Every structure is written in structure tokens, then in C-alpha cells.
Amino acid sequence: MSHHRVLGFSVAVALGALACRSYAQPASAERSATAGDVDADWLSEHYTKREVTIPMRDGVELFTSIYIPKDSPGPHPIIMKRTPYSCRPYGEDAFPTRLGPSPEFALDHYIVVHQDVRGCWMSEGEFVNMTPHVPHKSGPSDIDESTDCYDTIEWLMENVENNNGNVGLWGISYPGFYATSSMIDHHPALKASSPQAPIADWWYDDFHHHGAFFLPHTFGFISSFGLPRPEPTTTRPRRSFEFGTPDGYDFYLNKMGPLKNADEKFLKGQVAFWTEAAAHPNRDEFWQSRDILPHLHDVAPAVMVVGGWFDAEDLYGPLNIYRSIEEMNPGVFNILVMGPWVHGGWARSQGDRIGNAWFGGPTSPWYRDAIQKPFFDFYLRGIGPDEDGDGEIDLAEAIVFETGANQWRTFDQWPPASVNKRSLYLHAGGALKLDDKPRIAHGGGHNAFDSFISDPNKPVPFTQEIALGMTRAYMTDDQRFASRRPDVLSYQTEALDEAVTLAGPLTAELWVSTDQADADWVVKLIDVYPDDHEDYPGIADGHRTAGSQMMVRSEVVRGRFRNDPASPEPFTPNEPTLVRLPLQDILHTFKPDHKIMIQIQSTWFPLVDRNPQKWVDNIFTDAEEDHFVKATHTVHRSAAYPTRIVVGVLDE
Each residue of 89-101: pLDDT tens digit? Predict the structure, then answer.
């Protein structure tokens, strides 16, 4: 693990304290314009735009827009984004409303490069989703995103005047994947990269979660994004799907029905990736080859991975990309930034709230000004704090927002060294107890369990909202609506006498059984507020913070993949079976008088597609209406089968 100096802050956002950068702006930044002035008109006045096609080693040419500052002699660093979502607007007289990760990059005269990746929009070639990395290259036909980025940078160094020889990569979401894969076997001029909300492995983020299929997110995205683009084009090669209703629960349950109907009724073979996903229901070579984590060797010499604690799309990606880079690149400056954000919220919002959850004040502007801009300035411009002279910027290894307490924290490693593994055990009467394993003498005999009937034809909704897709706020939603259902089990502690801070990975170890052959298992970690808690500012009409059950972490596993995601296996009816479910990392404080709650259920609709519960080999293609049957699911909490959530408690 790399050790870095801790930046001098532990910012309590609730007090409105925003940390300031600890060094002066370069002379070029002494300006009258502000970030609010940067728009298309400002950019057209202060930048020259070039549109070029850059040849790759296999002869394919990639369309690239280059924005060069007019009013500074330079030389200037290059900040680059590679994207499948278009580097619009096209035309050398057309300018976007913003350039770079934030407006300050244009104000400080960065050269900005946007590129359509291979097979997208105006670039030549064939587009391949989550381009598999080629670890051993023997000739010009062995190409992947790392070679395309290398060849692009080589061309930029030779053909863009007044560059200072330093390039930075960044991107959010799918462009975050390209920022990750593009920095492998990096060009010498690539000095810094920031994958932000990056996709890492579509078996564990975005489209699947431990084999459970995220239906509205995948269908809504791929039904338009996945349409073919035969030739380079400046127009959108996709269309928005017409659902005919605002109610996703009704659409996916009644209008679509079994998953096979998605293609038969609606997509009709037009979306190749849906067809491929349906043909690969298990984590076989198709999915394994799209996992970027094993290939993160020889990455850019400075990396800043950014993610959001409540990113409904890509929470797995940033956490695991950071870990993999740490393990495979011991000499690389590699830091992690995690804030209280939705997908891309650090760039697109103030970061003060999600739904009815409130984080004390704006968090995004501080990150952009005090962390993101200084990171690139240091490695691309050579300015910034380096008090010990080791050539690394003085930023902490982990800069992490502590939800619940609503403050920024810094650590010299992630997870923090001061975390102690503890266990939250399920007990009778819906009790949840820390480190109190069930004992036979205290009602923990073999018959200690809780059961519920799971009906895939009346699944538990994932939100109270009427929505077509995966709502951005679902990861912080009040779960009182779910706790009132008979097919949701709830366990909670007594009101806490003192604060408890959970940090690092969480893992559910479920001892479960079912009278059918398959089952999904959903686990939610919830902060239960006191009944006299004051309402948060800006809370929605009709909602109350008092007594709310704020979800702070949740995850799902398709039970057939409990032992091996590549080799599904049925449950033996009514036989207690261990199912392990990683819930991802956390940094959350449960305050005094709050309670810690765990909810366990089997349906989460339509966020997750319905498990028929009767065994079929391929739920995508084989499940018919009569396969969706009721099942009695049991969660055991005995001395022999102690269901628990393994947590890390931060020792202050």
C-alpha cells in the first residue's frame, strides 16, 4: 500500500467549513472570469477547436475534438476523456457548454481532448461493450482500449502545438471504464488518471449484482444504447423506448412478464448485447473477459479513483478498481475519494442531499476545488503541495465522507487500520445484537428461525415512487414501506447508548433454506432515526425524518450462484445452506438514540428481475409464466446456523 501525507482537514460539512487549497493559483489563473462564466459563448471566445481523425495501429481512425486555449502562450497540459456517448457538438464552430472535469480547467487554459471510442458516433471500427483487454500483444491487430489510448496520446504529442508533454485522463461511468482500461501499459506522457464511477465488471455492477439481473436499469439503457450504428454518424443512432406507462412495476410485471418477452415483444432481435447477455446467464468467459480488474498492471503513475456511497449504478467499480491498483502497482500514487453522492453527483450536483437524506451542506464544490483540480494541477502542471519533496501531492490515501456524522475523514489506508471485525447476529423477536451469537440455552436451538412466503407474482417493490427506471435515490430511501410487508424480515438493535461507526467492507453470512430450488436474497443495512428527530431541511411534503428507516447499504445475490457464479446449482429443499453476500464498503455513523436495522427479503422489484423459484437453467430464455411459484423461505438464527452481518467497527 502507498503511504501519503494526510491533508490537513477533517471537514464537518454541517458547520459549513470548506477546506481551501493550500497553494497559490498559477499566474494564468489570475483572472476576472469565474466558473459561472464558462459556457459555449465563453469557450468559443477563448478556445480554438480542431476536429481530427487519429489513426490507430490497425488502421482504424478515431474521431477526436481538440480544444486549444487562445489567450495564453503556454505550454499547456492536456486533459482527455474517451467516451461512447459522443464528443458532441460536431463542427469546428460548435462548442459545448463545459469542458473538462469542471469549468476551472478551461479557466486555467488546459488543452481539452474528447474522443469517440472505437465504433461509436464518428469513429471508425466495431464497438465492443466493455472491450476485453488483450494482455499479450504480438502485432498491430491486437488492439484494446489501452492501445487506442496509447496511439492517441502519441499522435497528440506530435501534432498538438504548445502542449507541455503531460496528459491526464478522466471519465465518469462508462467513460470511467475507458479511463481505467486506457491507463494500462500507459504512454510515458500519461501522468495522471481519474476513473470516476468506473464500471469494472458487469457481473457485479450496473447490469448484474452477484448474478441478480438489474432489469429496468439494463433494459432502459440497452434498448436505446444497444441499437446498431453501421456507419460513423453525428446523429443519435438510438431512440428512447416508449413504455406506454409511467409505472415500471406494472410494465415489467404485467406488460413484459417473463424475461424472455423482453426480446420477443419489444426488442425483436435489434439489440445484440441483450441477445448476448441472454445467451450467457452464468459468469462464463463472455463476462469474465469483460472484467478489467485482473489487468490493472503498469497503470498511470498517479491515480485518483472517485465514487459515490449511494451510486446506484457503479459502487462496486471504484472500490474494487482502487483495491486492484493498490495490489498490482506498489509504486503508484493511488488514492480513493468516496463522497455522499449518486452516480456522478460530484460533477452534476451540490452533493448536499439525496431524496430525503441530507448531508449537512454542499460536498461537491469542495471536492472539485480542493481535491480534483489540485490533483491534476500537481501531476500535469507541476504546482501544488509537496512538503516532504517526494514528488507526490500531499493528499491522503483515502478521502472519505462519513455519512450519519456528515463530515469528511482522511485515512492513510482503506479500509482504515483501526477497524475491528464485529458481528451483528439475528435473534428472536426481531432483535439484532452485536457480538452476541445465539446459544442453545438462550433460545438458539435448531428450531430458531423466521420464515416468510415469497410470491414472485406479488414482489416487494424497491421504492414507493412511481418510476420506470432505477431511481437515483433508492439507496437512501426510507424503508418503512418495506418493513410493513409480511415478506420482509426486520431485525434491529435497541436504541444506541453511544455512537457506532461502521467502516470498510460488510458481508452478510446468511443461513437460509427454501422449499423450492432457487431464491434471491436481499440484505439491507438501515439507520433507524429516533421518533423525536427533527425534520431535515427541504424534506418532501408528507415525509418525516422522525422514525425514518434510512437505507445506507443494500445488496442482492441470486442464490444459485452462492458457491460459483460460473456454475449455478439448485438448493436442496428445506436444507439449511450458507449464502455469503458482500455488501460493499461503508463509512457511516449510527448516532446515539438511533437503531441499527437489518432487513432480509427475496424480491426487490422491478429493480431486480423476478426469480421464478422453480428451477430453470436460463431465466432469460426458459422461464415461463407457470415457473413463477410461491416459496417458503427461511432465515435461520440458531447456534448451529447463526445468520450474521460481519461489520468493521471503527475504533476511534
Answer: 999 999 999 899 9
Q: 13-130+143-200+292-411: what CATH class? A: alpha beta
How do residues 315-346 score in pLDDT, each as one tens digit? 999 999 999 999 999 989 999 999 999 999 99
pLDDT digits (tens, 9 = 90+) for 585-616: 999 999 999 999 999 999 999 999 999 999 99
Q: How far is CA 459 from CA 147, 513, 605, 629, in A?
A: 46, 19, 6, 11
CA distances from 293 to 133, 163, 184, 482 (A): 10, 32, 11, 35
The answer to whether the predicted template modeling score (pTM) of the entire model surpasses 0.85 is yes
Provide Rg for the chain, Cα atoms: 25
| Beta strands at 76-83 and 163-172: parallel, antiparallel or unpaired | parallel
Give domain limits for the chain.
Answer: 13-130+143-200+292-411, 419-650
The answer to whether the 13-130+143-200+292-411 and 419-650 domains have the same CATH topology is no
Q: How far apart are CA 309 and CA 314, in angstroms?
A: 10
| Strand duo 76-83 + 47-55: pairing | unpaired
Give yes or no for residue 514 having a pLDDT over 60: yes
CA-CA distance, 334 to 182, in Å (whole number)?
16
The CATH fold of domain 419-650 = Jelly Rolls (2.60.120)
